[in-house]
Amino acid sequence: QVQLVESGGGLVQAGGSLNLSCAASGIMFSISHMGWYRQAPGNQRVVVATISSGGSTNYADSVKGRCTISRDNAKNTVYLEMNSLKPEETAVYYCNAHVLRNFWGQGTQVTVSS
Asked: Quick one: which H or E segment has residue 88?
């Protein structure tokens, strides 16, 4: 059974930082393409950042220079460091794993106050 468990969300002031974690189980993590997505109320889920099994990263233009995605294959965990957060980045943040098919975590709420 595949499980992706996000943690690290919360309330932060604009300009602040948060570090999200996603612990994976039930999948071949080391060969999985991992990503972070977010969904604000009334909006579609959009990609924030992705990291390949080989460590190559991609970022949404809106977060380039402010966010860093990383992975620790020994811990089956993917991370998202977010800095200089903006109120419009308030959303539920979801962890995604892609290996043969997509898997999603339950999401963690990030609220950025102005």
From this structure: none
Asked if residues 98 and 78 have their Cβ atoms less than 8 Å apart, the reply is no
Is the separation of the CB atoms in 69 and 20 below 8 Å?
no
- The DSSP secondary-structure symbol of 1 reads -
DSSP summary character for residue 77: E
- Could you give the CA distance from residue 102 to residue 114 in angstroms, rounded to a whole number? 34
**Which residue ranges in the chain fall short of pLDDT 50?**
none
Write out the two tokens for 61: 């233009």
Q: For 77-104, how does the pLDDT look when each residue is reduced to its tens digit (9 = 90+)?
A: 999 999 999 999 999 999 999 988 999 9
How wide is the angle at C-alpha 92 spanned by C-alphas 55 and 61, nearest 5°?
A: 50
Q: What is the pLDDT of residue 94?
A: 98
Separation between Cα atoms, residue 44 and residue 65, nearest integer Å:
23
